């Protein structure tokens, strides 16, 4: 499937639709290996803006000068998030991804200080707890990619640091989105994270099938919708305060 150049919109739609339909994580990562040389051109054709949206959301809330922030880009792919982060001056960037092919593309432009192969859901992130001022996962939270049970791995965020996540909200991803939001709610209820932003975006990327455009509950002008979440990891003292504060009675 790998081609020298990205394809036309119908070809790109077919390719991304195929990726969404792969039921197994290992197969999906192989798919990304083969797609890697064409990935950036293809997602540009698809008008995929999640990296810019996530970075805008994160950088508005991240305190301190950009050059002092250490940031982890989880499921970094070819480095689209890093390219967005470097523009306003964020230079201390680490990336992890489960696809060697995608990492190879990310390595070439020297966007990251460190890149590691890591399959979320099967392996821990290769950094100690509390390492990063901010952690992002963009474009990888869906079925057969990063499972919701990998979210607690974002313990690598410093206390007081930020976590930025994106997912699609079109009909085919709604079940995953519900499971993700249940996981995020549990992180909040445990006092570990504090929700700052949930930003729905109508024009996330072009739909990959006519079905989504015609019958999708969120399709607009051929686009599917998505959402950006921003959380702050609480400091240990705040976690204690949340846990010791009176909880509302459980529902019936
Ligand atoms: C759609 S791409 C997004 C890449 C980049 N974040 C972006 O927005 O352009 C999804 C990436 O997630 C990676 N990925 C999917 N599941 C993963 C997992 N369980 N662990 C690590 N990486 C994963 C893929 O290899 C791929 O590079």
Give the end-to-end Cα distance, rounded to a whole number of Å.
54 Å
Unreliable segments (pLDDT under 50, ≥5 consecutive)?
Answer: 214-218
The helix tally amounts to 8
Query: What is the count of structural domains?
Result: 1
Helix fraction, binned, reads: 25-40%
Structural write-up:
This protein is an alpha/beta fold and 252 residues long. It has one domain (9-233): Rossmann fold. 37% of the residues lie in helices and 23% in strands. It is built from 8 helices and 7 strands; from the N terminus they run αααβαβαβββαβαβα. β1, α4 and β2 (92-97) form a beta-alpha-beta unit. α3 crosses α4 (80-86). The longest helix has 21 residues, at 25-45. The model is unreliable at 214-218 (pLDDT under 50).
Short account of what is shown:
With 252 residues, the chain is of the alpha/beta class.
Write the layout of secondary structure elements.
Layout: H1 9-21, H2 25-45, H3 50-61, E1 70-74, H4 80-86, E2 92-97, H5 100-107, E3 114-117, E4 132-137, E5 157-168, H6 174-189, E6 193-206, H7 210-215, E7 223-233, H8 236-244
Parallel strand pairs: 1-2, 1-4, 2-3, 4-5
Antiparallel strand pairs: 5-7, 6-7
Helix pairs in contact: 2-5, 3-4
């Amino acid at each position: 499937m790998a081609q020298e150049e990205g394809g036309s919109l119908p070809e790109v739609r077919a390719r991304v639709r195929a990726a969404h339909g792969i039921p197994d994580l290992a197969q999906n990562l192989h798919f990304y290996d083969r797609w890697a040389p064409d990935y950036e051109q293809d997602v540009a054709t698809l008008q995929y803006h999640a990296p810019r949206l996530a970075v805008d959301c994160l950088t508005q809330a991240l305190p301190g000068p950009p050059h002092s922030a250490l940031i982890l880009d989880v499921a970094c792919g070819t480095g689209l998030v890093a390219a967005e982060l470097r523009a306003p001056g964020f230079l201390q960037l680490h990336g992890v991804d489960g696809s060697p092919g995608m990492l190879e593309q990310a390595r070439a432009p020297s966007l990251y200080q460190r890149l590691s192969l890591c399959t979320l859901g099967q392996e821990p992130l290769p950094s100690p707890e509390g390492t990063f001022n901010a952690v992002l996962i963009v474009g990888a939270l869906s079925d057969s990619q990063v499972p919701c049970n990998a979210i607690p791995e974002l313990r690598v965020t410093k206390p007081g640091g930020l976590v930025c996540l994106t997912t699609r909200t079109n009909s085919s991803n709604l079940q995953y989105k519900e499971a993700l939001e249940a996981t995020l709610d549990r992180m909040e209820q445990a006092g570990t994270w504090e929700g700052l932003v949930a930003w729905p975006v109508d024009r996330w990327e072009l739909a990959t099938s006519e079905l989504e455009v015609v019958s999708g509950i969120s399709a607009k002008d051929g686009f599917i919708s998505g959402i950006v979440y921003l959380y702050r990891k609480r400091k240990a003292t705040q976690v204690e305060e949340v846990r010791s504060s009176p909880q509302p009675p459980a529902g019936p």
